Amino acid sequence: MTLLDGVIARLLPAVPRPVVQLFSARYIAGATLDDAVRAVEALNGEGKLATIDVLGEEITHEDEARAIAKAYRDVFEAIRLGGLDANVSVKLTALGLDLSYDLCRENLIDVVRLAASHGNFVRIDMEDSSTTDDTMRLYRELREAGHDNLGIVLQAYLRRTLDDVRSLIDLKPNVRLCKGIYVEPPSLAFTDVEAVRANYVRSLDALLDGGAYVGVATHDEWLIGEALRRIEARRLERGVYEFQMLLGVRESRATELVAAGHRLRVYVPYGEQWYGYSLRRLQENPAMAGTIARATVGRAFGRL
Ligand SMILES: Cc1cc2nc3c(=O)[nH]c(=O)nc-3n(C[C@H](O)[C@H](O)[C@H](O)COP(=O)(O)OP(=O)(O)OC[C@H]3O[C@@H](n4cnc5c(N)ncnc54)[C@H](O)[C@@H]3O)c2cc1C
Fold first, then answer.
1. Is 125 near ligand 1, meaning CB less than 6 Å away?
2. Alpha helices in the chain (DSSP H)
């Protein structure tokens, strides 16, 4: 990343929404469930699995949270009708966590029950550190209540993550392990790239040793290599791990992993509320931020 691009990445929130939308189109299936279905059909056709996310993290009313929970009803129906190989990912703030823990719990249970009735699975995405405790608590509560079709995400950039792995391991959890994308203070999160990688590998080892199902969610070639080495050394069966990537990122690498016989799941977000998700994706693609800056300047001069 050049210094200029890094600055631009931080300035992205000031970029006009139409420009953000234009450049983030590759990361989002579209505005409608039909768009998501088409994206998943294409992925399934390439031997890739999917997880569908209904975008909706900017909600401020109880009704909106319930509407998101209901939207998952349509998603499960679409998965069934289309014979799609996909599960779902949910954000607790979309289900109302910022409004009330109990509302969120109720909505999550609805989605998880619905998933179970379809023989399907729900992954709780991990959001910023203000939500980590509640997310961990809710995951444990639901698992202890017998909802086994539920997974969680842990973020390797958080200093607490290895402790979180240890605290969950008795549940034989299904964990997506990622680096983490939210802006966190150094007191809570490693900021050095190598420290994040090291914590990722330590957490991955602890998860695999503890018998967790692991979703190795990264596009980082170094980490993919470390994961592959561990899979081979432990002679892991296909059924106890998978790789995960985001829609629109490193697609040919994903195809290679599938060709090599690994399960590979792609995160497929769709919906009207694309803005927050798009900003995060563009922020971690600084080369794209540079392109956006040029486009923004071009637009200001009437060339876009
Ligand atoms: C399936 C999945 C689910 C996730 N769920 C969560 C979650 O619940 N909570 C959370 O905090 N984070 C989540 N993330 C995001 C994650 O935390 C990282 O921010 C993101 O994956 C980038 O980290 P990386 O490991 O890919 O490494 P990086 O070092 O960021 O990326 C490695 C390489 O991948 C390519 N790349 C990465 N991102 C982009 C991009 N946007 N555009 C173009 N190229 C790119 C670049 O070539 C880059 O050099 C998820 C990621 C994945 C793959």
1. yes
2. 3-11, 17-24, 33-45, 62-82, 101-117, 132-144, 161-168, 193-209, 221-233, 251-259, 275-283, 286-300
Examine the pLDDT at 148 and tell me if it is beyond 70: yes
Catalytic residue among 176, 263, 265, 281: 176
Residue 106 C-alpha to ligand 1 middle, in angstroms? 30
Atom of ligand 1 nearest to the CA of 245: 53
C-alpha span between 61 and 76 (Å, rounded): 24
pTM: 0.93
Mean pLDDT of the chain: 91
Can you tell me the distance from the alpha carbon of 302 to that of 188, in angstroms, rounded to the nearest whole number?
44
* Encoded amino acid at 185, one letter: P
pLDDT at 302 > cutoff 70: no
For residue 123, the cross-strand partners are 89, 151
